[in-house]
Design goal:
Blueprint lengths: L1 E3 L16 H11 L17 E2 L8 E5 L1 E2 L8 H7 L5 E3 L11 H4 L2 E9 L7 H4 L10 H8 L4 E4 L18 E9 L3 E3 L2 E10 L6 H15 L5 H5 L15 E7 L1 H5 L11 H23 L1 H11 L11 H11 L6 H7 L30
Parallel strand pairs: 3-11
Antiparallel strand pairs: 1-3, 1-5, 2-4, 6-10, 6-11, 7-8, 8-10, 9-10
Length: about 375
Amino acid sequence: MVAYLGANYAGLQRNPGQITVESVLFEAVGKAGGVAECNSDSFEKVHWQSCARTDKGVSAAGNVIGLKIIESPDLKSKINAALPQDIRVLDIRPVGKRFNPKNRCSSRYYTYLLPTYLFAPSKIHQGDKTAPFVFDPEAINAVLKYFEGSHNFHNFTSKSGPKEFNNPSANRYIMSAKCSKPILYDGQEWTKITLLGQSFVLYQIRKMVGLTICIVRDGANPRIILSCFEKPKKPLPTAPALGLFLNRCNFDDFNKFNDNQLDWKSNEQEMENFIDNVIAPSIVQKDKDHNVFNGWKEIIETYPLDYEYLYSTVESQDKQESKLDQLEIGEEEELTKYKPTNPPPTSTPVPPPTSTPPPTLDQPQQD
């Protein structure tokens, strides 16, 4: 059970010639005596399997790696001593010989961290009126509610994903979608959108967040979301990759039939500390250095989404695809694409509430 900051790595999975989380972690396990020397040259020999693959730059507060390991009382501390500070082993739990974390995972919990000013009313919604913006998480929750349940997310993936309406792999089940109360990081107001689902298609979360932002800031009818689950193709805005990280993987079904529980109850505080002290500061600093979120907002304002257009035909949407393709980029590209022009707007700060523990396996986050 591991936490890591993805900023310094070319993704989770091993990739010859690249420094990845798995390659660094496997080397540390070998140095700590967690695998026999004869097996330390091969992931396959120790049956190494990861639960949730994270791409380049994407972090995780609670991912799971399965492997054959040589147990010892102080193995966790030995592995962590051989690791850089941006990768931490949270715990080591025994499981069955045939355990595959990817196949046994019952749900995945993702968090998207973003500045609250993105929800400030746009010119379309506010017109010439000028009033201080006060962030209201309940307004966002009212929109996010439309994503919950089983839906066809064929419009919420990339060109390489299940774009066709009749593709069964486009059907996904969202258990919970919530927006947190405001949090202050480096003097700026931020919020967290948390999504709990069985699994997600490529870019799904970023498109869900992007569409939610546009609906709130433009004062649009949130029922537009329901139309995006229907057959007509619609290009949707893709929020920056920067704010997204894996919060944890859940194993509810596995825990029902095994005495050795694979849960996060004893690791909650350590995970929360890793988010607050490692992952969040990295996101905030990168946004400050590269103007990622404000730059994305400027693109949205340059090509404002007309929500009547979201109901348009495939033929008419082709004219807009080239514009909206600018929003579907990876983190490495977005750090160089957005050039600071205007400083980001500010909102009326709200003192951060008393923090509550993140959700357990049996209790999704309630705000």
